[in-house]
Records
---
Amino acid sequence: MSGEELPSTDIITLTRHVLSDQFRAGAVATGDLTLLLTAIQTTSKFIATNVRKARLINLVGLAGETNVQGEEQKKLDVLSNDIMINSLRASGKTAVLVSEELEEAVIIEDKYKGNYCVVFDPLDGSSNIDAGVNIGTIFGIYRIKPGSKGTIEDVLRPGSEMVAAGYTMYGSSANLVLTTGNGVNGYTLDAALGEFILTHPDIRIPPRGKIYSFNEGNAMYFHPPVVNYLNSLKFPPSGKSPYSARYIGSMVADVHRTLLYGGIFGYPDDKKSKSGKLRLLYEAFPMAFLTEQAGGLATTGTKRILDIVPTSIHQRCPVFLGSRDDVQDVLKFYKGGGGA
Ligand code: FDP
């Protein structure tokens, strides 16, 4: 086969990778988390397939219902939510499920009950679906508290108590990015094999980036620290280059780029949205966990996101996350001490 590249015969699939982590964990690991992650992988493959053919089989457009946030549900949102609930319940590994699409938490019946709770946004960035822009699934996983049978209290816990978190981005390829608390790895779906293959081992976010990602259409509502911080990026001291602006408006895609290229993603609270827009449990926590595990920082501007104790499952939270030095600059503006 001269000139032709031979295929690798030692491919690392997501399951193989998580299993090898489990071997390292020794006696503590039961294999339950691996099985739960297998269920999540299956849902991501299903959603990826349907996102790809959505236009052809009339899956885009409205499903004619509104979700708990008062937003119109798309057909793909409904489908993605259903597959996740069904698959996670059937895995036998979950006790409590929280979905962006459902007002109440789902408490799994005894027959299928396991030891984990999954909080998720089945299809985030849904306002982008019809335009074919990248969208994604975001998830966070808690282990139920010792002695608990699985109640809402098992998910009203700080993000620092999550045991795993990740997202799958549906774009030109499907990319699943995962942390189990031991760094961050990225896997790309090989559609022919039907497997997520390790393509981005040990993702480390650069300590400083050159990109900022905010919806500046909200600038008239922004509080002074945010306005001043953004001005410092656009009008840096002479000799320094201004930052580039990139805002897709799909959290998974904006965070994915931030993890790989560095820089900062922000959705602050402002005069109109008192707590910001993004949801704490299934948007801010998983992304903050991934960011910190990749060496970055995630803050509300005044406190570490992962330290927040949620009081309700759909609560919102201001978010700034990304490269360590960039996020530290924002914190300086919040403390009133200027910036870089
Ligand atoms: P969407 O409304 O399209 O579902 O929280 C959802 C989210 O998208 C995020 O994915 C995204 O980062 C943000 O909202 C975009 O909000 P704006 O349109 O207000 O910028």
---
Amino acid sequence: MTELNPINDAVSYGYEGNVALLCINNPPVNAMGVAVREGIMHAVEVINDQAKAKVIVVYCAGRTFIAGADIREFAKPPMGPSYGEALSALEDSALPTVSIIHGTALGGGFETALATHARVGISGAKFGLPEVLLGIIPGAGGTQRLPRVTSIAYALDIALSGRHVSVEEGARDGAIDRVVDSGDPREIAIATGREVIEGNLNTRRTADIDVAADDAAIDSALSMVQQKNPHLINLAECAKAIAASTLPLSEGLEREADHFRVCMNSPQRSGLIHAFFGERAVSNVPEAKGETRKLDKVGVIGGGTMGSGIATSCLLAGLPVRMIEVQQEGLDRGVTTITKNLDGAVSRNKMTPEARDKALSNLTPSLAMQDLDDVDLVIEAVFEKMDIKKDIFTKLDTICKPGAILATNTSYLNVDAIAKVTNRPQDVLGLHFFSPAHVMRLLEIVQGEQTAPDVLATGFDLARTLKKVGVLAQVCDGFIGNRILGHYSKVASYLVMDGATPQQVDAALEGFGFAMGPHKVGDLAGLDIGYMTRQRRKEEGPDPKERYAGALADKICEQGWYGRKTGKGYYLYEGGAPVPNPEVDTFLDEVRAENDITPQDFSDQDIVDQYMTAMISEAARVVEDGTAKRPVDVDMVFLFGYGFPRFRGGPLHYADTIGAKELVTRIDTYAQEDPTYWQVPPLLRKMADDGTTFADLNS
Ligand code: 3H9
């Protein structure tokens, strides 16, 4: 095999007869950083100058073709040649250029392929323009060159969805010129080069292709993005850039650059990129690494919504599940729910009917807890009552084999108190799933006082197996997410008691970007859960100085109205869209009268500011006392478990956009009305004093 000559650390070139090879090798994903851009430019120049070849074939080493621009460079000042300069070198090369796609050619990677004169995909490879998912648009010619080789309508579909497309589909639509069977990218590069020389594969400059205008497709894309994602500015910018592809390429590229700049400068870009790296950062902790225990068979205790969702999630990942219930009726209900969940996956084309049948054959329902004697992991998902949980863990301690991991899915209760009833507290941890557990991607991995390191690492291993985002949390009432929720949800109640309506609070927060306001979420989750928690806290003796937030919700629950499942809550559910429940107004009048409250006016901005400041305050305390390891862990909990708008990056990323000083000023102002609830977290005060940010604490 001919040795390649390095241009720099990332790019090398060489010859196989008349075929010039241009190899990119920039692990792990061949991101197109400055060295790759520089290397491509120089290699194309050298190969053309040496005049030894008849074609240049670009391929990548490692697991994938170029997976995109190096996103980490976005935060730095521009360096080296631009993307446009590097890609023009390939497009304007006198020798024909061809790219060989394996793995995933994404963003700037696919744009590189579009700038070459032909594209060959290795079967199984994917391509796409996922830039919109990062808050930007394709900025290296993708909006101009993809319509040239396909059409405006197709380019809109690919660039606005960000979806990964099989090269087989691309070959049908013109994005890919040829698909070849699997093989080594270098061998395929050599064979493809020879095909070009022999005239068996046509090449042509993408820039020379004209684009047919399609105003109808552009108009419909613009109205679709406005309707579906009104918050995201980059989608419309992307559609407008694609509309410019009917211009000569150089003019179209200028338009693309203008639209790209708008997005690069937007806080949405920073929020979405924080989310991209944050999703990966949460498992980049020592606790997630190291030895793990075997995880071949799982037991789930409880066939309710939660237990069935957890079991579904495990079955979807190919894990055999033994599900335990105390009565046949509950067990049957659990099996029915799991079957429905899996049927739903089939109808959404997420799995085949055969895969569903195989998953169901992996489920063993049982009424005997003794049947958990051979599982590697048990996840208890029963009623939130400490006595019941203690009883179950006492039994598990005698039933389960040595080394089996015993997990509780409790949302609030003390994992250490549960672990203490066993003789193996080192094998116990919390695995807190979010409902519906087979859909929601968050898994809080709760470390008990005595949880063994390999048990914790196995928790992260489970998250990976279930394709979830595992976040480490320490024991406290509610862990990371529910503890913060418990704090800021009071503000939603105070705002309503003090003059806003539940609908106004919901609308203001939906305007901020939440898919649903807190009252709609409460109705959906079931108001009885919060009611029970408040009753429990009343028994434990609440802080007498703290203003009671549950007065209105209690009145609603006392009617037996628990939200959607009973047809009534803050809203009425009588088919169609929810409408405000008029009786809530009466309860609200009563609550205000009982508490001597004169209602005031709140603007939507007041509502968002108070709600977000409360969320950030408790989140700061959670970071300060170590319940969450870093601010980014809190952010990911909220993105993946609580419907926090992804484009805002998470509560603490958002906090940095406001600044600690302003947050402290706000809290001090709110505290004039209610000094018990509104207190400046010491961490926030310190950050305001020394001018630091939550981002500083992540690094
Ligand atoms: C773009 O191209 C803009 C252009 O239009 C030009 C504008 C001028 N940069 O996900 P993984 C890291 S925008 C830097 O775990 P997988 C990642 O953080 C870009 N780093 O692997 C991780 O690091 P660590 C458009 C990147 O096999 C490691 O690589 N492209 C980048 O599960 C492994 O990643 C995209 O949006 C990057 N672009 O999935 C594609 N990508 O080990 C983004 C990854 O330290 N990437 N890293 O945690 C992906 O979707 C997935 O990484 C991919 C591999 C599917 C490629």
